[in-house]
Design goal:
alpha/beta; Rossmann fold; Alpha-Beta Plaits; 6-stranded mixed β-sheet; 4-stranded antiparallel β-sheet; 11 helices; about 35% helix; about 25% strand; globular
Length: about 300
């Protein structure tokens, strides 16, 4: 499979701040690839370098084999971008936004109209085609921004927090479209704070923190490797912790709970109920969020 994007020792400095610290990754054609990380991890800076809007200061970053610093125009011609904040033009209708945006790519007017109508149908906005964008719901605006990003028939689509603030129905529709685009060979890169979104969409992902990549892999593989299949939870009390330590059971503190990562779920649960407490113990499937919190910590980042 072709490599669409490759970074080798990629670095970005702002004065004396090292925002991205010699990271390495590859993205394959038709793959949905995710970037996860707390605020300030370096995700957005990395995305800006990929989008050719912020030049790299070290290492190598190539998109379709082209250096991002040397060939930004050529790369942008085959790239679509969905920014975190909707930036549609309120002076134009739904279809007008698409046609106007097509002018950045020198698409002939008749071809632009054809593509715009096809994309409006694709994102299920036919009945809003001639409406002002101000009259659209949040989910509709998000779908229109996605359609706009597709007007130049991109080979690479980059989405920054694609479903933030959307209701479950709108979120699932966006997911459906992204998986469909991937199945057609379009490479999709997303950043997201929704762990469920990353787990459902991404073929592979990286978790970043402090400008570095902590881990890379398939979501299911990362969950199994770092936390296992299930987690046992109990109330965070001195009694519970003393009992767990007495029985040489390792645990993690998760605010008001203690969490035990162990494959022997039934044995651990029975032991806690028998020797520590007689209730308040639960077992649940491990998730990507557990991996994220274990690797990046639980402290709030502003």
């Amino acid at each position: 499979m072709n490599i669409v994007l490759e970074a080798k020792n990629l670095e970005k400095k702002f004065s004396d701040v090292l925002a991205v610290n010699k990271i390495n990754f590859k993205v394959k054609e038709g793959e949905v690839f995710g970037f996860l990380g707390p605020n300030g991890a370096g995700k957005t800076t990395t995305m800006k370098m990929i989008q050719c809007v912020s030049p790299k200061t070290g290492g190598d970053l190539r998109v379709f084999g082209l250096d991002v610093n040397q060939y930004p125009k050529e790369i942008k011609q085959v790239m679509g971008v969905v920014p975190q904040m909707d930036n549609l033009d309120p002076d134009f209708t739904v279809i007008g936004n698409l046609i106007q945006f097509s002018r950045y790519f020198d698409i002939p007017l008749e071809e632009a109209k054809k593509r715009a109508n096809e994309l409006i149908d694709y994102v299920q906005l036919n009945d809003k085609k001639d409406s002002s964008v101000d009259k659209l719901s949040g989910g509709m605006k998000r779908r229109l921004v996605l359609a706009r990003a597709m007007i130049n028939n991109p080979k690479l689509l980059i989405l920054d927090e694609p479903t933030t603030g959307l209701d479950p129905q709108a979120r699932h529709l966006i997911w459906e479209k992204l998986k469909d685009l991937s199945s057609k060979g379009i490479t999709v890169i997303i950043t997201t704070h929704y762990m469920e979104e990353a787990a459902r969409l991404c073929d592979r992902l990286v978790i970043m923190d402090n400008g570095e990549i902590l881990v890379e892999g398939k979501p299911k593989d990362l969950v199994k490797k770092y936390v296992g299949d299930h987690i046992v939870e109990a109330e965070n009390t001195t009694e519970i912790k003393t009992c767990l330590e007495k029985n040489d059971i390792k645990y993690e503190i998760a605010n008001e709970s203690v969490e035990i990562y162990n494959e022997n779920v039934s044995d651990i649960t029975n032991l806690i109920l028998k020797e520590c407490v007689d209730s308040g113990v639960t077992a649940r499937p491990a998730t990507l969020e557990d991996v994220f919190l274990k690797l990046t910590g639980r402290k709030l980042r502003e």
